[in-house]
Write a structure and sequence with these properties.
Helix content is 60%, strand content 3%. It has 17 helices and 2 strands. A two-stranded antiparallel ribbon has the order 1-2. The longest helix is centred in the first third of the chain and has 25 residues. 39% of the residues are buried.
């Protein structure tokens, strides 16, 4: 969820959920375990399982159902268990489909299934036994927009605790401590994302109560983490880029909520997913952000070879050589060579052009 493959951070997160309600922790931990087990049973990648990439979507989904469908109902536990299995399969599908554009799945599988279930829940009495539905028409903002000083600190921590649907400042503080335990850089970037969410929402005139409860700024925290230090290197340039993305996600949150609320859906982490996808796709046009800008004469990036004229050529390994024997065992008899670099070195006189060898003296 916060891009940290650290067992101690996960333990701190579980403890933070226990502070709110032990059943929340049980749903989250059980969802992560069920998602990881499903991936293992279906022969999923061991590396992805050990890194937690097969369990965070299922953990979020189980926790979401506990919050919205009732954590003390057996039907909720059954729906959560089934949803964890389905979302794990959906994660594998998202990884395959998004790899075409070199994009990560993020929380897209969780968002899709969470919206589907919350929209459909009122149609099934055993899943939603309540009289009131989840659907609501969007309304214009109302209430005061001025933030009081005593609301700033709770808003800062609520932006973190709302990642797990909780409006509890001490839970947010503990979650932030767990993040700092894994990476000081990541923790500071999360703090910067939370501040950006508060400032952006206030500058746009969002109601103060929505800023204070964290529902306007939690997506900003996720976007800041993703775009600085996770999918892009942590540099001053990418930090500014990430904070711009955090502000964009904050402004996008009411849009997504207004689109989904008439059918009973919620924004969840859709603003984070959509903003991160857009900004990561744009990075390919800005090499300074990705660190892919190289000196002249170096190997062009894979996405630029067609434009620059460079293309990978292949040279057969010499039969009988140690390299050739190693490649025969791997089933690969060729060696990639970049023609662009070799031809430039030939023209510069640093490498002799290929041609017939003259016999040496006997």
């Amino acid at each position: 969820m916060v891009f940290q493959a650290n067992a101690w951070t996960g333990a701190v997160f579980a403890a933070a959920l226990c502070l709110a309600d032990w059943r929340f922790a049980a749903y989250a931990v059980g969802g992560a375990a069920l998602g990881t087990w499903t991936a293992r049973a279906l022969g999923g990648s061991r590396h992805r399982r050990e890194a937690g990439l097969e369990g965070f979507n299922s953990a979020l989904l189980a926790l979401c159902f506990a919050v919205f469908l009732g954590r003390d109902r057996p039907a909720t536990a059954l729906v959560a268990a089934a949803g964890c299995i389905v979302v794990t399969i959906g994660t594998a599908a998202a990884v395959r489909l998004l790899s075409v554009w070199n994009l990560p799945p993020l929380t897209l599988p969780y968002c899709l299934l969470a919206v589907a279930v919350t929209v459909a829940a009122p149609a099934f009495r055993r899943i939603w036994p309540f009289d009131a539905g989840l659907a609501a028409l969007p309304d214009s903002a109302s209430g005061r927009t001025a933030l009081h000083l005593n609301e700033l600190v709770p808003a800062f921590f609520h932006n973190v605790s709302q990642l797990f649907f909780l409006e509890l400042w001490y839970v947010g503080a503990l979650l932030l401590a767990g993040l700092l335990l894994a990476s000081r850089t990541a923790g500071l970037i999360a703090c910067a994302g939370s501040v950006t969410g508060i400032v952006t929402a206030w500058a746009l005139g969002a109601p103060a109560d929505r800023i204070a409860d964290g529902t306007m700024g939690y997506n900003a925290v996720l976007v800041a983490l993703a775009l600085c230090g996770v999918f892009l290197p942590a540099t001053p340039t990418t930090l500014l880029f990430a904070l711009l993305g955090a502000a964009t996600a904050t402004a996008l949150t009411p849009t997504v909520a207004a689109l989904l609320s008439p059918s009973g859906g919620h924004a969840f982490t859709w603003p984070f997913v959509l903003t991160t996808f857009g900004f990561l796709a744009a990075v390919r046009s800005f090499p300074r952000l990705s660190g892919a800008d190289r000196a002249p004469g170096s190997v062009p990036a894979a996405g630029l070879r067609r434009r620059t004229g460079g293309r990978p050529c292949r040279r057969s390994a010499r039969a009988g050589s140690s390299t050739g024997r190693a490649r025969e065992r791997r089933g690969d008899d060729t060696e990639p060579v970049t023609c662009t670099v070799r031809s430039s070195l030939i023209h510069a006189g640093r490498v002799r052009a290929p041609g017939p060898r003259t016999p040496g003296p006997k």
